[in-house]
Design brief:
heterodimer, A: 160 residues, alpha/beta, Hypothetical Protein Ychn, Chain: A, five-stranded parallel sheet, 39% helix, globular, B: 80 residues, alpha+beta, Translation Initiation Factor IF3, four-stranded mixed sheet, 2 helices, 4 strands
């Protein structure tokens, strides 16, 4: 259509906190709406926001981790003031009252806009999270080199 | 001095907050022809800055803005 190369934006999502994941999806969605090619790389705690939410882990530590740190985008709480889940509930209510999209809705919007979501194979292995434990929209499980290459092609690389 | 701008599509973004206004605008712009104008109403205070950036990035143009109380109205012309 036009001779210009499509601009690219990459995000490394290492945090599993609601506020940080929200910022990641908001920026990713905004960039996609502006015509950018967007890639989100989920690693470590970021995996929580792309897990289906079921139990994970095979060994003792893996299963212990799964018990105290259940994944799933509806379960993640703010980085501070979570207060045992109370803060998460309050933030969700405040956001709803102000007409802000919820996290699951925002993630779906990102998917609908063609944002590419990839997962870090290494942290999946460490935390004993399998591909089947992640939402099906994850296109690939990759490593650092792949991520660095994507970032090298992009105008904007964000670490969240 | 102010001429009424005719619009080809009306977009209600009232009550929606970032990033939804730009997302909806990106979806709506595909529904109009090149040269046509979308008239939108929003309440998000940051919407003009966002839509301006979106317009620059996508090659469209925000041709007019107006503020009526709490409602921010703006017109975007599809150029590409």
């Amino acid at each position: 259509m036009d001779g210009e190369k499509q601009k690219k934006c990459t995000l490394v999502v290492c945090s599993g906190d609601m506020d940080k994941v929200f910022a990641a999806f908001a920026i990713a969605t905004g960039a996609a709406a502006m015509g950018y090619e967007v890639v989100m790389f989920f690693t470590f705690w970021g995996l929580k926001s792309i897990q289906k939410g079921g139990p994970t882990g095979r060994g003792l530590f893996g299963r212990m981790l799964s018990l105290v740190n259940r994944g799933g985008i509806s379960r993640i709480g703010p980085s501070r003031l979570n207060m045992g889940g109370m803060g998460r509930w309050m933030f969700k209510k405040m956001m709803k009252n102000k007409g802000v999209a919820s996290l699951p809705e925002l993630r779906q919007t990102a998917i609908d806009l063609g944002v590419r979501m990839i997962a870090c194979q290494m942290s999946m292995d460490v935390m004993e999270i399998r591909r089947e434990d992640l939402i099906p929209e994850i296109s690939d499980c990759v490593g650092a080199a792949y991520m660095v290459q994507e970032a090298g092609e992009s105008e904007t690389n964000l670490y969240i | 001095m102010t001429e009424e701008l005719t619009s080809d599509l009306k977009l209600d973004l009232k009550g929606l907050m970032c990033p939804l206004p730009v997302v909806k605008m990106a979806q709506a712009i595909k529904k109009v022809e090149i040269g046509q104008v979308i008239e939108a109403e929003a309440t998000d205070l940051g919407v003009l800055a966002d839509i301006l950036a979106w317009s620059k990035s996508t090659g469209n143009e925000m041709v007019k803005t107006a503020k009526e109380g709490k409602v921010i109205r703006f017109w975007v012309k599809r150029l590409k």
